[in-house]
Give the backbone structure.
Amino acid sequence: MTETLGKKRLAVLGAGKMGSILLQAFLKSGLFAAENLSATVAHPERAKALSRQLNITVACDNRAAAKTADIVLLCVKPQAVKEVLQEIREEMGPGQVVISVAASVPTSYIEERLPAKVVVVRAMPNTPAMVGAGITGVCGGSCATPQHLHMACRLFETVGKTVTVDEKHMDAVTGLSASGPAFIYIVLESLAEAGVKVGLPRDLATLLAAQTTLGASRVVLETGSHPALLKDAVTTPAGCTIDGIMELEEGKLRVTLIKAVVKATQRAKELLFA
Ligand SMILES: NC(=O)c1ccc[n+]([C@@H]2O[C@H](COP(=O)([O-])OP(=O)(O)OC[C@H]3O[C@@H](n4cnc5c(N)ncnc54)[C@H](OP(=O)(O)O)[C@@H]3O)[C@@H](O)[C@H]2O)c1
């Protein structure tokens, strides 16, 4: 079992998709005891349902939740961050840590709206977190120490890997690894569709496509080899794979994926002001 964070209390403000994934992982890993976790949402009926589901306190009162928390995990949409910070400002003080997963919202934006000395950490997880296969980029605000970053990483390690990055890279992390699962689902769906086109039953085609995507990813991660070298190793002279690669090049798959990440990164810079 994971070492706990002692008696630290954590409040998730905005327990939607990402907030709920994290809460479930904290409970499952034993990082926090249920009595030290609380959460808020916007709608009272959702608060009731989530409280019943997770067996923790869930309400709609951000101020009350923030007041008693050592760590405030801000999981509302970027556009709601300003309003929530205004609400909780009075309750916050030195010693408390705010960790925000909101895309596009710089640590300086949060620091300006909270009392001095509240520590701010920014994190960007992704949805494969729901099966413990996520990756989270983490960076610190002006008062965050390596210990604060270490503590934040421990939270996100309950849902996968973590990387500490410079804040100037956080929008790029958003465009690549937070948006990335959607891009890969499209690649995967297309491979499965291709399997159907060449005569495979859909279930089998989807399994072959998904396990192949997983396998290729694991080889990159576990060998540390450059993907281009791994691709070369699969590509026999005058074999089948090179014919497939020619089609990919003609269809501009590479440049299309590059442009997708560039666009998503640009959009990540704008969300707060949208
Ligand atoms: N989903 C992802 O892939 C992903 C990845 C990385 C980061 N993020 C970031 O995570 C954040 C949440 O995204 P999400 O996909 O989890 O969105 P979501 O499912 O819409 O969750 C947002 C939650 O915030 C609650 N909420 C709204 N206004 C509130 C308020 N004033 N006070 C308290 N709670 C409030 C909503 O309550 P109700 O349920 O009652 O409506 C909902 O539970 C965003 O900032 C996003 O950038 C998301």
